[in-house]
Design a protein that fits this description.
single chain; mainly alpha; 4 helices; about 0% strand
Length: about 100
């Protein structure tokens, strides 16, 4: 049983640690580097957008408006904590009214 657990841990660790050791040795073309740099934003968007549309059941416009406020604040490079607090406040204000 312990060998199965150790094997699963090893199989999981290899794909996670390998890029950390390999990325310094390889040079990618500029378009590949741009594409790789965009992956975190795409993943973040894929995780956040479904939550935005389901903030309040049956009222996706509330989350979309708050998400829009967050996008505008982020565009102007407002601090992340301020952006999150203002977006939450927007949801609060829209649900009170």
């Amino acid at each position: 049983m312990i060998f199965i657990i150790m094997g699963m841990a090893l199989v999981t660790m290899i794909p996670r640690f390998l890029p950390a050791f390999v990325v310094d040795r390889w040079t990618f073309p500029a378009w590949v580097s741009r594409w790789l740099n965009a992956i975190p934003y795409a993943a973040l968007g894929a995780l956040i957008f479904p939550g935005i549309t389901t903030v309040i059941e049956g009222e996706p416009h509330v989350g979309l408006i708050a998400g829009g406020v967050g996008v505008v604040l982020a565009f102007f490079r407002v601090h992340t904590i301020v952006t999150v607090v203002v977006a939450i406040g927007t949801v609060y204000v829209l649900t009170i009214g």
